[in-house]
Amino acid sequence: MKGRALSGSRAMRKLAAVMVMLGALSLLPQWLPFLFPEMPGSETSPVLTGTTFPVPGAISAFAAEEWEREFEDICSQTADPMVLSEDQLRDLVARCDRLKPKIEKLGESERKVYLKRLDFCRGLFLYVLESKRQ
Amino acid sequence: MKKVVLVVTLLLLCAGVTLAQVGVKKKRPLPEEYGRVVINNYSEKAGLAPVVFDHWLHRARFSCRLCHVDIAFAMKAGATSIRAADNMRGYYCGACHNGKMPVEDRKVFESCAKEQLPKDARRCERCHSLGRDVKREYDFTAFSKKLPKERFGNGIDWEKAEEMGLVKPAQFLEGVSVKRSPLKIQKDFTLEARVEGMPEIIFSHRKHTVWNGCELCHPEIFFGVKKGMTKYTMPEIFEGKYCGVCHRTVAFPLIDCQRCHAKPVQGAEAVPAR
Known about the structure:
The complex is a heterodimer. By secondary structure, chain A is an all-alpha fold. Chain A has one domain (2-133). Chain A is built from 5 helices and no strands. The longest helix of chain A has 34 residues, at 2-35. The radius of gyration of chain A is 23 Å and the shape is rod-shaped. Chain A starts with a helix and ends with a helix. By secondary structure, chain B is of the alpha+beta class. Chain B is 26% helix and 7% strand. In chain B, a hairpin with an 8-residue loop joins strand 5 and strand 6. Chain B is globular, with a radius of gyration of 23 Å. The interface between A and B is large, with 35 and 37 residues.
């Protein structure tokens, strides 16, 4: 009886160990950029490292990079928007609209900052589009 | 008794009407106070003094675009609603004030912390300083000593200071700014003054683009897409519209007429100097 009880608690310990390992494995993708910063695709901006530090339930660093890359790609074209064609401008506005809901899902600070920044870019593309039409 | 009340009421009414017509003369801020922003969205609620932000110190180091586009500070005081948590996460003030960024020979101080420990009091007071007897780290007089002078505002000709290499406003902040191709330099243009005999306005589109980029002004401040379509009026500008967004608060003030109305009226005869 005693032996069975002991083997029962041993099984529980094993189960707990397996669960901890599984938990750690599930967090591994978030830890990778911090463990191996030189790994391709591990470049995390100082701002992102502050906000996406791997805590359970936090948005993953990889997912964050996806919207950030799209944001950078769109807003990098604000330097000389006059050279863009009307189709290109329309496409950029549409991309802003598609990106907005993704940014709205971010944490409070990120959401506030990036929505404002996205608004600047979208506003400018629309403005230039309108001036080209006229 | 009734007569006294009547007389006092009449006097108050007259005073009110007089003040409404002539207004109250606004005290012109001192050069070091020009552009100063007081931020009090949450400070007092958190038991701290409101933040006093010296615009001159920051504009000497960073371009308008960097702070107002890339870091997303609103153009109106208090409109950003900055929270300590935002700063701690590395946004707004925390984008630079993170205890890591090098400035001259040291690291910039860190803004905000979860708990206010007694040892942090001095650091907190560097920003949360309204009404406190705080010695400011940077002395305006010493700072502005070598810079070219102007009559109004901060008393500094910022444009000339940059041309002379005395101030170098940064355009890019690693990890925050978007990598953009170099800005296309825009050509300056003239705008006709509405008042006869008033010199035409030379709008330095080039300078404004270099400091602001395109998106800071268009379309939020200047929404007209065709040149000459929007009729700008001085009363509107004095109310804080168009040029008044900056030239009433942080950039050279509107009373410095000649800075904009700089082109001689065509056909006007030059008045010989006596």
